[in-house]
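Researcher: Re-running this chain for the archive, since the previous output was lost when a drive failed. Same request as before.
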Amino acid sequence: MKSPKSIYSSLILLGLPLVGSSVAQFSLTIIDAAMLGHYSPIALASAVIAGSFFFSFFIVGSGFSFAVVPLVAAYEAQKDQQQVRRITRMGLWMSLIYTLLVLICFLNSKKILLIIGQSEEIASLSQEYLRIMGFGLLPALLVVTLRSYLTGLKHTQVIFLITVMGIPLKVFLNWVFIFGNLGVSEMGIKGAAFTTTVVHLFMLFLLVFYIQNKLRSYLIFNRLWRLDYSYLIKIVKLGLPIGLTYFAETSLFTATAVMMGWLGTIQLAAHGITMQLAGLTFMFHVGMSQAATTITGYAFGKNDGGEELQRIGKATIMLTIAYAVLIMSIFLLFPDFLLALFLDESLLLSEQILSLAANLLMIAAAFHLVDGLQAAGLGLLRGIQDVKIPSILALISYWFFGIGSGYLLGFGLKLGSVGLWMGMVIGLTMAAASLIWRYWRKTSFR
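Model: Regenerated structure tokens:
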């Protein structure tokens, strides 16, 4: 039985490299938003919609990859390398299968965006981005699967190092391809999509190189072409609810972005900037959630009792709250400085966009706390391989309470973009409360 101090130490030592890698990964999106914001407000607004579209599909596919973490952690606790190998291979296979299934949606994304009410200009630019990102989905998912495998084995520092290496490459390639430098033709929003795909291929190569050299005994890539149907089904059973849970949350953000598009370009661009800040600071919770999944997965694999699992839960929640208070303070004290990083004030519409974004950032402070708590709840539940009921709780919270109240406040009560953000806070609050309650109830009877 671990002491509370040792649990905190384990979470921090395992989680901080994951936090760093999550920040570095999200920085790729931040870089696109910042550089496209200096290229064109229309390109920025299109990237907000296109990014939400891509992420909705990406996060569902990532569910199969994230399923690798608790399963690898549990099998590693039992010192069963064969099971670790079979699970990871089928996680890689599911990345390929899923990409082939959804690629057509990316190739025809303009039609979909027009149906959900986006303007012709926004839909056309978004499709230019998404037709490239559709093919970039496979390397992105393969990267997540291999990161999940390494996380389950507690090899988190290398994940951080490899992801960080992608940042300067992304900045340089964006400078070349978005703006047309070094003799390359200016590509605009298409350049951002192209460079993202190249960076994911770069990180995939480095991950494979590390695994082949440092973890050769696991034989992950040996006879990779062989399908293992029993383990493929295991991945699907655990991964599909995880993916749908993430989709339920992401669809709340996507639906909010779509409704922002109904309000206008200014509202959509302001929303995009605020979400970049909210998303970047959220990466701490992503890393700690993954760490909680791994540590809980080890305890679960060793058949530790509910008391030990609840100690892990309490430590995770306390770390979440402490960090959230810090970020909330920064949002409230320095809004103008933070927002100015994302938009050239000399461009058309910049003043209106920044003014509205400052109001949204005030709501984002409350948003950050409940978003962190729901991530903690999901990470803990994944560790004990409890995913089906949480996916239902997430669906009700995000769709009924989140999207429903956002639409009512934004359009019914005419609060506009502020009302839409209040809806997201309501949905995340319901999710946080129900998921944490679920974890405590499950571990109380163990």
